[in-house]
Amino acid sequence: MKPSHTIRPVFDDPNLVSAAGLVPALRLAEAAGLYDLLEGLSVPSPNAAAKTTGVVAGMLAGADSIDDLDLLRHGAMGRLFAGVRAPSTLGTFLRSFTHGHVQQLDKAGGGLLAGLSARVPGLLTGGDVDGIAFVDVDDTVREVHGYAKQGAAFGYSKVRGLNIQLATISTPTAAPVIARARLRKGNTASATGAGRLLAQAITTARAAGVTGRILTRADSAYYGWAFVGTALRHKAWFSVTARMTPSVTAAIASIEASAWKAIEYPNAVYDEAENRWVSDAEVAEVPFTAFTGRRKAEHVSCRLVVRRVKRLQPLASDGSEQGELFATYRHHAFITNSTLSVVEADQRHRDHALVEQVIAELKDGPLAHLPSGKYPANAAWVACAVIAFNIARTTAVAASMRTARWATLRTRIINIPARIAATGRRLVLHLPTHWPWTSGWKSLWATATGPPTPATT
Description:
Blueprint: E1 16-17, H1 22-31, H2 34-38, H3 48-60, H4 77-80, H5 87-95, H6 99-119, E2 133-143, E3 153-154, E4 160-171, E5 174-184, H7 194-207, E6 214-218, H8 225-233, E7 237-241, H9 246-253, E8 261-262, E9 269-271, E10 276-278, E11 281-290, E12 300-310, H10 321-328, E13 329-336, H11 342-350, H12 354-363, H13 375-398, H14 406-414, E14 418-423, E15 426-430, H15 438-449
Parallel strand pairs: 2-6, 6-7
Antiparallel strand pairs: 1-14, 2-4, 3-4, 4-5, 7-13, 8-11, 9-10, 11-12, 12-13, 14-15
């Protein structure tokens, strides 16, 4: 395409907005109780609820820094929304947070998720309220620069940054939402605080309407009693990647050759004549007792499920049978107390990788930066990002775009231009003709402004 005429740009229309999708998105959040929940903030700053909503709205529209929040102050945005603040005001507001205020905001985010799930029942259940749900825990390091960032340090990623730990909730038919997230010092060990975070996430999942079995998943950084013990106390299944300790390698070596089953795996081929998958990947399981180095009450009897993949270039063996086994295959083991079949247990555990997609979306959005030098301000920014992510996910479900990424949602639903007109005592949004995603936008509007959707029974 190329411009068809000589064009002269003039910024002179006070009735235009560039993010009309914020109207139904924030209406949906309001119906889910966002403003009431934020009234509980005791931050020493007036109109804390309005200012927090301003930060969240900016994130929904694509802001990844405090200066970017100025995108809310253009055209007719002041007519659509009351209480639009300047970025400097919002920055001062974030710097007024303490650790306790961040905890209040985190709790409000958990309450909002329950309200959103009630407003849009398909957000978590996907129509199957009694099915299995997954709670995934992971952490990431957000690199920062300069020496003014409180809490920044070198962590396991070998870069200087701040650590963000989060827990997501998903189902086989519902994309993940964030149950809880917290900002930590950059050199904090991954598993620190995992038990408390997991307990909060499971409680949030139950409050949000998950009534079926919960499977908690994590990688080897969380292989320990804190994570597994919390899952057991909350009567949840666990699926945690095992570290290759001597006891784990001995258990793998004890698996009979006949116990291995070929599975569907990248580059696998299904042999119809033999009715089986022919691949370099196989799974097997063996009974296992984890954490035997702890007191007896904390020994966990479970299943050790192992997936092995043939090495493209075998390693040198030490000549023993066990040495030959580990030289020929790469082994990936995890412990679980689920009753799923060995093949399904392996598939479900591999799906833990979806938490990485959530982290990627956050880093592609509001967590592209941690914008303040103050640690509590950045922690509040992370809490606001969680609220914005969950609103965006709910907006996608309401717009019949269940699996859309946040960036896609911004393009199709949030950042849609509109012209404001007044008729009588109402404002009219004039949106573009032939907008490709008009039906989804209308569906979102109906959900946000109409009566609550009845839950599927």
